[in-house]
Specification:
single chain, 5-stranded mixed sheet, Rossmann fold, 5-stranded parallel sheet, 41% helix, alpha/beta, 16% strand
Amino acid sequence: MNLSNLTRRGFLASASLTIAGAPYLAKAQSRWPLTVTDAIGRSVTIAKKPTAIILGTGFNLVALSLIHPDPVSLLAGWASDMKTDNPFIYDAFRKKFPALETVPLVGNGEADGMSFEAALSLRADLAIMGMWQADSEPGIRAIGYLESVGVPVIVVDFNRDPLKTTPRDMRLLGRVLERDQQAEEFARFFETRLDRIKAKASVASEPRPLVLMDAFPSETRGSWAIGRTGLGELITLAGGRNVAENNLPPQGGPVTAEYLIAADPDVYIATGSPGGVYTSFSIGPGVDPAEARRSLGTAVRAANLAPLKAIREGNVHGLWNFFNAVPLNILAAEAVATWVRPEFSGDVDPAGSLAEINERFAAVPFEGAYWTSLRS
């Protein structure tokens, strides 16, 4: 994989690297101790380049893998949530980096599930937590404990306000890991695609389509309408209207069949996970595209969904739910944009973006069906 997308040609390139290398090395060495501001506004000082990192959520291994060629080599311990929720990604990383199998587990990804005893025994020099973990009383206690035993903690956000915070926090990780160039390239990749969607949405015609984004649809549980934050932000980005934007909390909430029939959305988007762990809809890493499409078709035959205009007209789509935990969320933004505004297709190309991520950035390629559609 070519992380920097640069070519090196013979002696001249080697000489130029040698000449430039000394000041760059001096600059890298001079950054320690390093003080940064994390996603919740905390000023954090890190004494030296981290080599033994605790991941409060295993999903942040994905973020590290986009800017570091061997992210597993950085780990002192990690949470089990990515391993249990998306085992195909875990297996892919384990096959590429067998040492992952022996990295100690420090919890299950829940802020109140961290083992302080395990964390203390690992002699870590940095911990990385997600915003959704840190923004809770157990998370605050975990940060306090880790810092009390000399482990600095930084918080990153790929979930609550992803369009704004993902490039910022990838740059933050780049500074902390001395992978500035790789992080900057990924951030620019993200921002270029985001700006393209914004530009097209700014001149899109009215009326704006009404969209239901349904987290883990279930005939027995009913629908959970994703709200204005997280993945729901992608609806507004694309120039759509969210059925949850006025009557539900920012994160969304459960909605009745009567609520949905009254709203009668133009576009339906389900979220799910591999193997249908939380719902019959199976999508994500390692899932065959045909299985993702088939299971989506099955899910929307539920009694609370079948009467909706979007379902009747086949304007039905699906996303991997865990886009809300990783910097790959730009792919979800592009997919949603093409569903809400079909005229964007061609200029906005999530499949092309995924191929470029795999070629330029990913230490482990991302394979499977991350989005699907019943629309032909």
